[in-house]
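Something for you to look into today, if you have time. I want to see for myself how the chain folds. Leave the record below and I will have a look.
***
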Amino acid sequence: MLASLARVLTVAAAFAVCAPVATLAAESPQAKPATTKKSTATSSKPAAPAPKKKASAQTKKPAPVPPPPPPPVELIGYVTMPADTFRGGPPSGQFDNDGRRAAEPRFDSQPVEGVSSIKPGSTPGVWWALSDNGFGRKWNSSDYRLCIYLFEVRPRTQAGPDSRTALQAVIELSDPAKFFPWRLTDEVTPERFLTGADMDPESLVAMADETFWIGDEIGPWLLHFSVDGELLGPPVELPDHAHSVDHPLVLAGSEQAKIARTRGFEAMDLAGDGKTLVTILEGVVAGDPPRQLRVQRYDTAGAKWLPGTLIYEVDPDSMSVTDMSRIDGNRFVVIERDDLKGDAARAKRVYSIDLDKGVPGKPLAKKLVIDLLSIGNSHGLAETGAPGAPFRFPFLTPESIQVLDRKHVVIVNDNNYPDTGGRGPTITDPTEWLWLELGNPL
């Protein structure tokens, strides 16, 4: 695949992370009977005795049922990419959340951050990683160049302390053929590079023909790109004009929003047939029941949405899904999360689902397979937390998952650069890659 990257920006300098290994322990009154008052009336017959009432025991409140223990999961590989990692490119970070331009950009180049989806590359240890939209909002990311990274990742394992993340290449996304029917941020250059103000990429699928499908949240849209990062066709809209509040037609006032901001195609993977995209919206479509997210399928060969929408229902203490990955057949794992981070985080979970057992109109059955706040660390790979305590992955958005086999998965967080709070209130969040071994096979 790399031989055909005509416009890939090759990164000569790699960065490495080596840290000492810390040794952590494995986790892995009875109510009184009613009294009868004596009758004061006179009668020729003796009064019949009042029926005795049974003593009623006080109703005891049942003891709360403790939650089931988390599934056994062990950390077997770990690598941290520092937050302040940059690549070549124009300055960035010059706009605030409302789109106002500051006097100077915050950064001299482009940060390598916001991994929102991963897929294995063509050789072991190499990974495609999708960049998020930049700095968290449409309006503050118009100088962030959207891209797909190619990383070499070598995690720290029980075999040794070394770890490494090396950026091998960058594919910048563009629309030179003008498939986007709306004005882009970059209308000056022939490439028409796409920025975080044009789309918000959240999910990535690498196809057998060396093209990519990307799920976006601004439309939300499905977008098809070449191996060089060029858009290959018009954005695919959701059925029923289900647009987000940031859709160009909604901003122009000609359509009503049905999806909240940043609640589009957050989770997506390829079905077992190799041509059908399975998508899960991050948020509820207007009119749908609370917490029930649409699961929809798009036929890439026939260029059409397939009938039979299913439902994924998030837990009461969760707020959204962030990614999915196929196990086998039409079984998938799905990450769901709350909107908290650090010590306050309570819901960072991975469930398995089976689309073949889905019933339209009813939520899919799901099974908890990973609690990301309770991971065994018997190999001492992670240096966070108290000795002997389970390893926690308490970032706001654990956003990427890839099934390797029925017992092993890789999970990566979106660090929302330059956000803080995952590893401490004043610590800028890094990008952490986890290799996990499941005690119970998927």
In short: Confidence is low (pLDDT under 50) at residues 2-46. The helical segments are 248-251. The longest strand covers residues 162-172. The radius of gyration is 27 Å.
